[in-house]
Write a structure and sequence with these properties.
CATH superfamily: Thiamin diphosphate (ThDP)-binding fold, Pyr/PP domains
Radius of gyration: 19 Å
Number of domains: 1
Number of strands: 10
CATH class: Alpha Beta
CATH architecture: 3-Layer(aba) Sandwich
Strand content: 15-25%
Order of helices and strands: HEHEEEHEHHEHEHEHHEEHH
Strand order of the largest sheet: 4-1-5-6-8-7-9-10
Largest sheet: 8 strands, mixed
Shape: globular
Number of helices: 11
Helix content: 25-40%
Distance between the termini: 23 Å
CATH topology: Rossmann fold
Structural class: alpha/beta
Length: 297
Amino acid sequence: MNASALDKNEYFYGHKACAGCGGSLAVRAALKVLGERAVAVLPAGCMSAVGFNFPQLCFGNNAIISMFAGTASMLTGVEAGLRRYARRKGYKDFHAVGFAGDGGTADIGIQALSGAIDRGDDILYICYDNEAYMNTGIQKSGLTPYGARTTTTPAGANIHGNIRPKKNMFEIVAAHDIPYAATATVGYINDFINKVEKASKIRGTKYIHVIAPCPTGWGIPVSDTVEVAREIADCGLWYLAEYENGEYRLTRDPKEFTSAEAYLRRQGRFKHLTDEDIATIIDSRDRKWERIRKEWK
């Protein structure tokens, strides 16, 4: 989608997000694609905390807060109601869209999401991934990367941050044989916009997983959000891909990776990493890319 084709109206503005918030960029861009007839569901998390501040509602279209675990299940009901209403009114261009963070998706909300995919609900689920429970104090989630320091995975003499790998939600969702799934990053916003537009035209359950840096939790300047979000894809620690019709496809395949070490060293959450830690991360990256380049088209 060309940027000039986006809805000229704003549907997420005046919010109380921290400066440089990647999640707010993702929500704003997605709603400009989906337009005024999108109804948004948000669980407890950063975007519900900053978007619903009575008496200031920061959504220009209809939006509702769900239970932490219930984003996808509430979307099921919203979509059913919209479908009935649209049939009476004679229009079809409505969307039920969820915006949930990494914890609300990969941990607390994964059961409801799995159920929605199994039912084939016509919904779009967007996970804005800032790689920790940022709203409640930077605790580790299932999508926190290896080595990252959080308040529940501290870095000290006996442990070097998070010791578990990042959960692969993209492939977990694809394993359900979902109609459409994609990865994205706010660092390549046009790619994200195009994937939201594509998803909006597909019937059934759709899932988009977008990297959305949190300057507070990542330990970066607020002006670096987009650059760091681009760098994570450039250095190969995140990939841009789609799953559709039973097949995976890379939408960006760098000929050469930029320095993963430089990406890690610029963030406060990784300052404690040793050379050996970084070598482990790079080795894991290389093995992953070897697999996906061999198996995916």
